[in-house]
Specification:
six-stranded mixed sheet; Rossmann fold; 273 residues; binds 2'-monophosphoadenosine-5'-diphosphate
Length: 273
């Protein structure tokens, strides 16, 4: 029997996950069906129950259900405990295992696909919401010289930095405090780009920067990337590689085979300019 997987979100029409997992399955000879489910707002648990009853083995979870998925799980991993959110689930009888692969997918894209190790680097992370939380531990595992988290609501940046303090050198601050500081790599994990807004980051942070990375996918040259580009940053990236890598992590977790992501990244890459 064909094994069933799906992505659940609302809205879900724009999800690339069915395409990605379809390509992975074909390239690796895996007999799976992967569909998209539009979960009713406020009705996440019922929709997942129905999927499991119908024999579903695993789900990817996207907005706005990542916190619901965390709550639904019976077993949680370290990475998503910290993020407080899950982006993948696996069903084994009554057991519901949950993971959050966004952060490891991002790190894999940066270090492996883009060839930019974070070890010993000064890393700036803009934002302290769900996306930033997911990246915190995977970033610190890379042992950067320092990780600075900047956020509009400074309390949230301090809170997140405190969570990571035992794992490495990390500090929270407001945007104004970035004036005069430089970083090797800058990540935009705010949701500002979704509304074509610019986080109030001073352009001077890019003075020695080798890579500016926009976690949002397919938004073109966002105000953040444009600022970095105008400040002379040679390497710009958006979240297409992160999207492919987190999917590959989930696929490997479910199927025991880690797919190569190159073909997916090539297919989904939307030029930045
Ligand atoms: P996500 O899951 O995408 O991270 P979120 O948890 O709602 O979404 O967090 C959104 C993040 O983007 C927050 O860090 C938010 O900053 P505040 O905590 O200060 O609100 C940040 N953000 C959103 N719009 C922004 C903007 N125009 N400028 C700067 N930061 C912005």
């Amino acid at each position: 029997m064909t094994d069933r997987y799906a992505v659940i979100g609302n809205p879900i029409g724009f999800s690339k996950s069915p395409l990605i997992h379809g390509m992975f399955a074909q390239a690796n000879g895996q007999d799976i069906e992967y569909t998209a489910i539009e979960g009713p707002l406020g009705g996440f648990a019922g929709a997942v129950d129905a999927f499991r009853t119908a024999g579903g083995l695993g789900l990817n979870i996207t907005a706005p259900f990542k916190l619901d998925a965390f709550a639904y799980a019976t077993e949680r991993s370290g990475a998503q405990l910290l993020a407080g959110a899950a982006n993948a689930m696996k069903f084994e009888g009554d057991r519901v295992l949950a993971e959050n692969f966004d952060g490891v997918g991002l790190v894999r894209d940066v270090t492996h696909n883009l060839g930019c190790p974070l070890k010993g680097k000064r890393v700036l992370l803009l934002g302290a919401g769900g996306a930033a939380r997911g990246a915190l531990l995977p970033f610190l595992e890379q042992e950067p010289a320092e990780l600075v988290i900047a956020n509009r609501s400074v309390d949230k940046a301090h809170e997140l930095a405190a969570i990571g303090a035992r794992q490495g050198r990390v500090r929270g601050c407001g945007y104004a405090e970035l004036e005069g500081q430089t970083f090797d790599v800058v990540f935009n994990a705010t949701s500002a780009s979704l509304r074509a807004e610019l986080p109030p980051v001073p352009a001077t942070v890019f003075a020695n920067c080798g890579l500016a990375y926009e976690l949002a996918y397919a938004k073109g040259l966002t105000p953040f990337l444009r600022l970095a580009h105008n400040a002379g940053v040679k390497r710009l990236a958006d979240g297409v590689g992160m999207l492919a890598e987190q999917a590959a992590e989930a696929f490997a977790w479910w199927r025991g085979v880690r797919p190569d992501t190159r073909a997916v990244i090539d297919k989904l890459t939307v030029p930045l300019v």
